[in-house]
Design brief:
alpha+beta, two-stranded antiparallel ribbon, globular, 6 strands
Length: 171
């Protein structure tokens, strides 16, 4: 069902793994993210920091190098989650993704996925954020598609406004 091209997994109109040419879709991909007045080297780092109210934890996560986001994730599994975490973690993730994909070249890279379904396919059993062995809610993929859709609308509205402004200037 799936094929590989340059290390990317895809299935017709779906990108089913955030690896290879589509690694930039991963929360582990290095980018500057701001949360709670602090700068983090990836979405994963900021998300893990937000899991608890301990400023020492935030600093510990912040100190983990960008290319070691897996260590941030591992640290996040050891903290006591803030009250209500499950009720707002998706909203937080959306905000972090909006910041990530507001930056170039990541914005253009996300837009280059056009209308492909984005599926955070994984082998480690994450069926909340992704899909494993065909099972999962794929919340990360759905949020990425939502962010991409909003960026597509912004592009359309910007082009429309520029066109309308240009036609008024020609009068």
């Amino acid at each position: 069902a799936g094929s590989t091209a340059m290390g990317c997994w895809y299935d017709k109109m779906a990108i089913i793994a955030f690896a290879g040419a589509h690694r930039f879709l991963s929360n582990f991909y290095p980018c500057v993210i701001h949360w709670n007045g602090m700068e983090f080297p990836s979405v994963e780092h900021a998300f893990v920091a937000a899991k608890c109210h301990d400023p020492e934890h935030w600093k510990a996560v912040q100190a983990i190098p960008a290319d070691r986001a897996n260590l941030a994730k591992r640290l996040g599994k050891t903290v006591k989650l803030q009250q209500g975490w499950d009720t707002y973690k998706r909203d937080l993730m959306e905000c972090l993704l909006v910041e990530k994909f507001s930056q170039e070249p990541l914005r253009s890279m996300l837009l280059s996925t056009t209308d492909h379904e984005l599926v955070e396919g994984n082998w480690w059993g994450d069926t909340y954020w992704g899909v494993c062995k065909g099972v999962g809610d794929n919340h990360l993929g759905k949020l990425l598609m939502k962010v991409r859709g909003n960026l597509q609308v912004d592009n359309y509205l910007t082009r429309d406004a520029q066109y309308n402004q240009g036609s008024r200037n020609d009068d």
